[in-house]
Amino acid sequence: MENLKLHKQKLYALIIAGVGLISMFLPWWHISFGGYGGYGGGFSTSINGLHELGFVSLLGFVGAGAIIFVMGDKTKPFAGQDKLIAAACFGVAGLIAIIQLLRQTKFASFGIFLAIIAGIAGAVVVYVLKPEQLEGKKPLRLNCINNTKQKPSCKGWLLFYTY
């Protein structure tokens, strides 16, 4: 991804927007009548997320992905207005998916759950996480507390992580 020269926060947001976009084409509801899952003379059908309000969710994921390339500098993290717009796009996409789930929960399938997760995760990556948390400059160290004069082995002792 060095060729795109995207900041990590924008790269993660783009990946999440892609997952959300794919979830729109996956089945949101699966309905089967008669038989076991449509076998044995029954009828079975799946409905994807491009119906009714789900189309607004599609626009949210597409908008969140487009913000990365249209607004601001690609090499810098989200800031200001583009941060708010991208978070709102992800939030609206996740909220519409939740509304669709609440309208019909009985036959819900995995696509709607993936859209909800992508909408929430996108809003968190864009708005809640700080760019410094994504950089990972310092490795995570494992420290142990040992109150004895023996060499600390961290076996059976209290462990804690520091940055």
Report on the architecture of this protein:
- The chain contains 5 helices and 4 strands, in the order H-E-E-H-H-H-H-E-E.
- The protein is 50% helix and 14% strand.
- By secondary structure, it is an alpha+beta fold.
- The C terminus is likely disordered.
- The chain has one domain: Up-down Bundle (Butyryl-CoA Dehydrogenase, subunit A, domain 3).
- The longest helix has 23 residues.
- Helix 1 packs antiparallel against helix 2 and helix 3 packs antiparallel against helix 4.
- The strands form 2 sheets. Strands 1-2 form a two-stranded antiparallel ribbon. Strands 3-4 form a two-stranded antiparallel ribbon.
**CATH topology call:** Butyryl-CoA Dehydrogenase, subunit A, domain 3
What is the rounded distance between the termini? 26 Å
Say how many strands there are.
4
Secondary-structure element order, N to C: HEEHHHHEE
Largest sheet: 2 strands, antiparallel
Rough outline: elongated
Mean pLDDT score: 79
Task: Give the radius of gyration.
Answer: 22 Å
Second CATH tier, the architecture? Up-down Bundle
Short overview:
With 163 residues, the chain is of the alpha+beta class. The chain has helices at residues 8-25, 54-70, 81-103, 110-128, 131-135; strands at 27-33, 43-48, 141-145, 158-162.
Task: Describe the secondary structure blueprint for this structure.
Elements: H1 8-25, E1 27-33, E2 43-48, H2 54-70, H3 81-103, H4 110-128, H5 131-135, E3 141-145, E4 158-162
Antiparallel strand pairs: 1-2, 3-4
Helix pairs in contact: 1-2, 1-4, 2-3, 3-4
